[in-house]
């Protein structure tokens, strides 16, 4: 009887090992399947001309009084700069803050709409409904919960060159009137909200609104619908137009209107 029991236990253990080996692990994704889509934060990080830039300070770096190595820094920065997200409260009085958005809402299929040729020849180009329909004609309907990403080519080609990305090297209010970079059109965002069930929109420029915008209508429409935005996304040229999954991990600032984020895509 004891032999039978021991045999059964060994068999169950072997089955468990085989099942574990057959079950994909979240950590088993090959490195070549993951694309980091985040610009590093440093003194070169691009912020809105009226915002406080990323300012690091070395607190201590060296051998401590106790004889061991110790290093620590501190930093100050605005919420909106570099690779970062916008929470709905950014442009909607009753919108959600960063702390009220569940983690799973930041994850979704990546829909990349490539308009580099149009954007690089027209700094004020705005993504149109026709651009969206052209993507769908090629790839099918935008999937449920998607991140719709506009690839302008601006950050990919020029970041962190402020003049080339923003259209001006100036800071402060005087710079705002000189901003020129592509963005979404209000009509395209209204279409996505009314006709497609998206998670949010993303872009490889400092703003989902074009730089020349004075009313930030794209922000107002999107945030008013409680949807999410991702700006200054990196390495768009490394992901396909469809099939990838986008993971956005913002700093959890409880009452934040936005936050710096680590962003990556898992390729199909």
Structure description:
It is a single chain. The chain has one domain: 3-Layer(bba) Sandwich (Glucose Oxidase, domain 1). The chain is built from eight helices and twelve strands. It has helices spanning 2-22, 116-121, 129-139, 154-158, 162-166, 173-176, 186-195, 217-224; strands at 34-36, 55-63, 69-76, 84-86, 107-114, 126-127, 146-151, 183-184, 198-203, 228-231, 244-250, 258-266. It has a seven-stranded mixed beta barrel. It has a two-stranded antiparallel sheet with strand order 2-3.
Structural class: alpha/beta
The number of helical segments is 8
User: By CATH's scheme, which homologous superfamily applies?
Assistant: Putative cyclase
Low-confidence stretches: 1-26
> So what's the overall shape?
globular
Enter the CATH topology name. Answer: Glucose Oxidase, domain 1
CATH architecture: 3-Layer(bba) Sandwich
Number of strand segments: 12
CATH class: Alpha Beta
What are the salient characteristics of this protein?
268 residues; alpha/beta; Glucose Oxidase, domain 1; 7-stranded mixed β-barrel; two-stranded antiparallel sheet; 8 helices; 12 strands; 26% helix; globular; disordered N terminus
In short:
This protein is α/β, with parallel strands linked by helices and 268 residues long. It has one domain (33-41, 79-266): Glucose Oxidase, domain 1. It contains 8 helices and 12 strands.
Give the SSE map:
Elements: H1 2-22, E1 34-36, E2 55-63, E3 69-76, E4 84-86, E5 107-114, H2 116-121, E6 126-127, H3 129-139, E7 146-151, H4 154-158, H5 162-166, H6 173-176, E8 183-184, H7 186-195, E9 198-203, H8 217-224, E10 228-231, E11 244-250, E12 258-266
Parallel strand pairs: 5-7, 6-8, 7-9, 9-10
Antiparallel strand pairs: 1-12, 2-3, 4-10, 4-12, 5-11, 11-12
Helix pairs in contact: 7-8
């Amino acid at each position: 009887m004891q032999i039978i029991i021991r045999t059964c236990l060994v068999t169950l253990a072997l089955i468990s090992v085989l099942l574990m080996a057959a079950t994909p692990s979240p950590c088993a994704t090959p490195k070549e399947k993951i694309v980091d889509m985040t610009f590093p934060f440093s003194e070169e990080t691009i912020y809105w001309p009226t915002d406080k830039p990323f300012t690091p300070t070395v607190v201590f770096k060296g051998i401590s009084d106790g004889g061991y190595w110790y290093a620590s820094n501190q930093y100050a920065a605005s919420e909106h700069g570099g690779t970062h997200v916008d929470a709905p409260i950014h442009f909607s009085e009753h919108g959600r803050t960063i702390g009220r958005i569940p983690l799973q809402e930041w994850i979704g299929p990546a829909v990349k709409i490539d308009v580099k040729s149009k954007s690089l020849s027209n700094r004020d180009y705005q993504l149109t409904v026709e651009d969206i329909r052209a993507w769908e004609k090629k790839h099918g309907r935008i999937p449920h919960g998607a991140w719709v990403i506009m690839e302008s080519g601006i950050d990919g080609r020029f970041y962190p060159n402020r003049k080339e990305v923003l259209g001006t090297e100036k800071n402060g209010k005087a710079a705002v009137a000189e901003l020129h970079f592509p963005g979404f059109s209000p009509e395209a965002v209204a279409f996505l909200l009314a006709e497609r069930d998206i998670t949010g929109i993303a872009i490889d420029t400092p703003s989902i609104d074009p730089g020349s915008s004075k009313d930030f209508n794209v922000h107002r429409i999107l945030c008013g619908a409680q949807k999410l935005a991702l700006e200054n996304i990196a390495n768009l040229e490394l992901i396909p137009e469809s099939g990838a999954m986008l993971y956005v991990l913002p700093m959890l600032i409880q009452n934040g209107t936005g936050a710096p984020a680590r962003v990556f895509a898992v390729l199909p």
